[in-house]
Design a protein that fits this description.
Layout (H helix, E strand, L loop, with lengths): L15 H12 L6 E4 L3 E2 L6 E9 L2 E9 L6 E3 L11 H6 L7 E3 L5 E7 L4 H17 L4 E7 L9 H14 L3 H11 L9 H8 L7 H9 L4 H13 L7 E4 L2 E4 L5 H18 L18
Helix pairs in contact: 4-5, 4-7
């Protein structure tokens, strides 16, 4: 009679210490990088469980999703798609645009969401591209929302500028875009020390209450708004600015050149004519409370 198989069960994706060792080797993550292994949870793929791995260091953050077999012996790195849904639905579900600065047409078939940093030179270039081309090319088909994502480890005045921008928006929403355009235009002149003085120059001649704005900036009354936007970006795996989402499709800065953006927007306009699974609900239809509606 053959001897019983006494081979050890081995490591599994459900053993967090073993999983951490495995992914550190896989991605060459040293001990300087903090690695967190999430609890396995049911996934959208039958027979597989989802394990989220989060790595962070010096303000940078990165997430990876693995799918583990029932016994935890095999893992798959990648994305799972439901062919009955928009492939970017997970991103669309995490993008919250309520009470965010925007321009364009409510109810447009294509929505852009840009995560930006006022001190970032690449964001300055992207902002100019979007402000110059978007509405002139797509007067009715597009709406854009602005999200703050200051890279605080690299840019010392980016977050104070974001807080100030939210203070302007809170007091006079239409003035936000004046602030947006002005701060990017004067980016090279601004420092952490002169930011407040420069903003004081900006509001001259504009219908903005200086005392109210200064109080808002000094008390950081809108910091929670900026922090919420940053956390949203992190949840969407934003790691650099600018990052643009087009109907949920994530485009890092190098992919968001105007020729690329225009091609993707054109594709989405045609696609949404039949798919109707992205874009924006304008909220401008009122129906009777009948089950037939």
């Amino acid at each position: 009679m053959p001897a019983a198989d006494t081979k050890p069960a081995g490591k599994t994706a459900f053993d967090k210490a073993a999983m951490e060792t495995y992914v550190r080797h896989l991605f060459v993550w040293s001990n300087k990088i903090k690695v967190e292994i999430g609890d396995p949870k049911p996934s959208s793929v039958p027979g597989l469980q989802e394990v989220k791995v989060t790595a962070s260091a010096e303000g940078a953050r990165h997430e990876e999703i693995f799918y583990a077999s029932k016994d935890g012996q095999k893992i798959i790195r990648g994305l799972a798609f439901d062919v009955n849904q928009n492939p970017f639905k997970p991103q669309l579900d995490k993008l919250h645009t309520q009470n965010e600065p925007s321009f364009g047409t409510p109810g447009a078939p294509v929505v852009l969401v840009v995560f930006s940093d006022f001190e970032c030179p690449y964001c300055k270039e992207e902002a100019k591209v979007l402000r110059t081309n978007l509405l002139s090319t797509y007067p009715k088909e597009v709406r854009l929302y602005f999200k703050n994502f200051p890279l605080t480890q690299l840019h010392p005045w980016a977050k104070p500028a974001a807080i100030a921008g939210r203070c302007v928006y809170q007091q006079k929403p239409d003035a936000f875009w004046l602030y947006h355009d002005w701060i990017f235009e004067h980016q090279g002149e601004i420092t952490q020390q002169n930011l407040s003085a420069k903003i004081a120059d900006f509001i001259k001649g504009k219908e903005i209450d200086e005392l109210q704005l200064n109080r808002c900036m000094e008390t950081k009354a809108t910091e929670a708004d900026v922090d919420r936007s940053m956390k949203e970006g992190q949840a969407l795996a934003v790691t650099a600015t600018p990052t643009v989402f087009v109907n949920g499709r994530q485009l890092p800065g190098q992919q968001a050149s105007w020729p690329n953006l225009r091609a993707i927007i054109d594709f989405e306009i045609e696609y949404q004519k039949t798919a109707k699974n992205a874009g924006e609900d304008c909220g401008c239809e009122v129906t009777l409370p009948s089950p037939l509606n």
